[in-house]
UniProtKB/TrEMBL annotation:
Belongs to the universal ribosomal protein uL15 family. Residues 84-151 form the Large ribosomal subunit protein uL15/eL18 domain. Residues 1-55 are annotated as: Disordered. InterPro entries: Ribosomal_uL15, Ribosomal_uL15/eL18, Ribosomal_uL15/eL18_sf, Ribosomal_uL15_bac-type. This is Large ribosomal subunit protein uL15. Gene3D superfamilies: 3.100.10.10. The gene is rplO. It comes from the Bacteria.
């Protein structure tokens, strides 16, 4: 404990007070001239002075929420949209075969850059292609492997 001649100030329950300005009195509106004046801060006349107008009310005009079409169905915000390339297009752009990446396909103008790519099986290939970093459909994979190619999705 402290020395005998020092007094320790301990916080007690009855010392607790809310922070200054934390507790404000609510406005008592419409209780006579003495509180908030004749019109209680609502101005004079008009709908807003007489009663509460619900949110979105446009004064009798057809409201925005009724002018817009109803939403139908569900749109998945996490859907992954693939750029598609057919084997026929790959054979046209790269007739010599070899390794193909999404960057090369974008440079050749087959897809947009920076988006995931999927190769589909439309068309035939005769050269061996090595696809890297692209998705491939099951039927396209068969055709690629039959031509001596391979696929790695890393």
């Amino acid at each position: 404990m402290a020395n005998n001649n020092e007094e320790v100030d301990i916080l007690q329950m009855h010392d607790l007070r809310p922070a200054p300005g934390a507790n404000k009195r609510r406005k008592r509106v419409g209780r006579g001239e003495g509180s908030r004046g004749k019109t209680s801060g609502r101005g004079t006349k008009g709908t807003g002075a007489r009663y509460q107008v619900r949110p979105g009310f446009e004064g009798g005009q057809l409201p925005l929420y009724m002018r817009l079409p109803k939403l139908r169905g569900f749109k998945n915000p996490f859907r992954k949209e693939y750029q598609v390339v057919n084997l026929k297009r790959v054979a046209e752009l790269f007739p010599e075969g070899g390794e193909i990446t999404p960057e090369q396909l974008a440079k050749a103008g087959a897809v947009r850059a920076g988006e995931p790519v999927k190769v589909l099986a439309d068309g035939e290939i005769s050269k061996a292609y090595t696809f890297k970093g692209v998705k491939v459909s099951a039927s396209a994979l068969k055709k690629i492997e039959a031509a001596g190619g391979s696929v790695s999705e890393d």
